[in-house]
Amino acid sequence: MTSEFKLAVSGAAGRMGQRIIAFSNESKIVSLAAAFDIATHPRIGDDVGLLAGIGEKGVLLSDSMVAAKGCNVLIDFSSAEATESHIKFCAENGINLVVGTTGLSDKVKADIKKASEKVAVVFAPNMGVGINVLLSIVNKMAAVLGDEYDVEIIEAHHNKKKDAPSGTAIGLAEAVASGMQVSLAEKAIHGRSGLVGARPKKEIGIHAVRGGDIIGEHTVMFAGPGETIEVSHSVLTRDVFAKGAVRAAEFLAGKKSGLFNMQDVLGLK
Ligand code: NAD
Question: What angle, rounded to 10 degrees, do the helices at 15-24 and 239-251 form?
């Protein structure tokens, strides 16, 4: 049975966009109806099914978000600059939205919140199942372990990643801060250098490593008196994000408005 819930994909020629197109092909809830990328992309006009390696889909790579008009949901994995206009466009045209793009400014995050009054939005810096389980675990660990355990978050990504620290590392830090009942803005420290002195209690250290082809690694270390606990997550393929993004789009089918995250999509709340 063909679904009537029409999907548009932005950043469709990108690493994530192509895998999202591939997995949307397996969905019984959404069906690909539009795909676009930046106007200067050399593959504009090509069939996106061929681009994604799943055979002809009859959907051509467009150079404009206007292609998404009439669709029910847009999955956006493009760039921080582009996402701002995609959010506005979706709110104005009644298109539900899945935002996976990271490195968004506070203003764009506020725009997402505002848009969610008009359309339903899933916004998550990491759409993988495993990391979302980790988010809920580190929140509980921080709450239970208390002041005597120092928390450090170390992330590693490929050398083309634009933003640092990763959206996921920030998400993990927020989960830890909420477990500790502190404000992340007050307690976060990004790397250390020089005569920094003794480590204050409840500081949350965040460290970004960049190199090679690393898809995404995150470790949360709880260093306490006489013991260290580390929880780690490694991504072996981007497909975990792409599957999660399609699942998020399916979750939005029939929803009118509201702001959701992957914890909602996966029923982890
Ligand atoms: P990529 O560079 O391979 O792809 C991005 C695509 O967006 C490119 O094809 C680019 O041409 C396109 N683009 C740029 N400007 C555009 C515009 N104005 N309109 C339409 N398309 C435009 O990058 P990627 O690895 O696919 O990652 C994309 C984003 O997704 C990044 O912000 C990345 O950090 C994020 N990401 C999020 C998750 C998650 O789970 N939330 C997982 C992986 C990556």
Answer: 60
